[in-house]
Amino acid sequence: MRVDQIFADARAAGAQPVSFEMFPPKGELTLERAREVAGGFAPLAPDFVSVTYSAGGSGNSAATAQIAQMISTEFGIPSVAHLTCISLTPDTLAAKIDEFRAAGIENVLALRGDLPAGMSEADAENIAFPYAKDLVPALVDAGFCVGGAAYPEGHLTCDDLPTSVKHLRQKQDAGASFFVTQLFFDNEYFYRFRELADAAGITVPITAGIMPFTSKQQIMRMVFTCAASLPAPVIKILARYEDDPASLREAGIEYACRQLEDLAAHGADGLHVYTMNRADVAQAAMHVLRR
Ligand code: FAD
Q1: Does the CB atom of residue 68 touch ligand 1 within 6 A?
Q2: What does the alpha-carbon distance between residue 102 and residue 71 come to, in Å, rounded to a whole number?
């Protein structure tokens, strides 16, 4: 099922789609392991599951389509295959489109991918598809429902939020019909960003991405790779449970659940959980959202 239709149906019913991310980082997620993860998600009946892609074709990016296909055909859960354009040429994109079609993929999250080491933003301008917006039209023409990434605190390499929102609008103009946000730990950033997006004429659904944090290392990595701000309540949790990883994990999941509840109460278009492939994390989130 197409994700734009899922959002339209939910909007008509006054509901908010809840989705999960499954990530195959750098070759670690085999089809077998992905099947186990999907089996853990299935009883929770998410509205869709998105499957990440290793930028640059490294890792197991070839598995993204297979995993997305498996989620839809074996578990009946709509899926979204991520695709990054940083290393694509027109020929390799055409081959990817064929691969995705052959796998029955309906939804694609069009991304640029992080720049490979040594490549600058200026170098990136000289490649075939420098920005995600450049990938969107070919995917739309090929018949996919196409989404893009949104950044409530602005993208790491973009200096100001209005410019980030302007770039988001370009993705909508290119044909993107839904957005999934970068994770954030303070909902106020999302609400401010939502206002800016509305003012910029962004009309497609923006689903809010939340990652339950389960360790200090994980959250510190996220702060630097995603440019997500750490609000005082999160810092207090990290300080309080510095020597108690189990309690920290529990408090991190609880914090994310409160964020999700608040976003739901504020009428977010949808809620997307960065599950880290953990059924218990997905279950905790679904428990607060569907009770
Ligand atoms: P873009 O929208 O192209 O933006 C990249 C940068 O260029 C931004 O700073 C933007 O402001 C700027 N920009 C955009 N348009 C213009 C323009 N016209 N002129 C000048 N500057 C411009 N990475 C992976 O490798 N695999 C994944 O599966 C993956 N999934 C993700 C899922 C989500 C929901 C999110 C939020 C991120 C994901 N990422 C993934 C990370 C993503 O690839 C990086 O954040 C990447 O650096 C930017 O990708 P983008 O699609 O947002 O790029």
Answers
A1: no
A2: 15
Per-residue confidence (pLDDT) for residue 129, from 0 to 100: 95
8 Å CB contact between 24 and 60: yes
Among 80, 71, 73, 72, CA closest to 31? 71
pLDDT at 290: 85
The answer to whether 250 is a known catalytic residue is: no
Q: What angle do CA 148, 136, 65 make, to 5 degrees?
A: 75
In terms of residue numbers, what domain contains 10? 3-289
Distance CA 54, CA 52 (A): 7
Residue 212 is predicted with a pLDDT of: 95
Angle between helices 187-199 and 161-174 (to 10 degrees): 60
Please report the pLDDT score of residue 26 as a whole number.
57
Could you tell me the pTM of the whole model? 0.96
User: Which one of 21, 32, 153, 261 is the catalytic residue?
Assistant: 21
Query: How many domains in the chain?
Result: 1
Pick the closest to residue 54 from 30, 90, 25 (CA basis).
Answer: 25
Q: Which atom of ligand 1 is nearest to the CA of 272?
A: 34
Summarize pLDDT for 106-133 with one digit per residue, the tens: 999 999 998 877 777 777 777 899 999 9
**Number of alpha carbons in the 13 Å side-chain half-sphere of residue 255:** 26
Residue 58's pLDDT band, with cuts at 50, 70 and 90, is: low
List the CATH number of the domain containing 280. 3.20.20.220
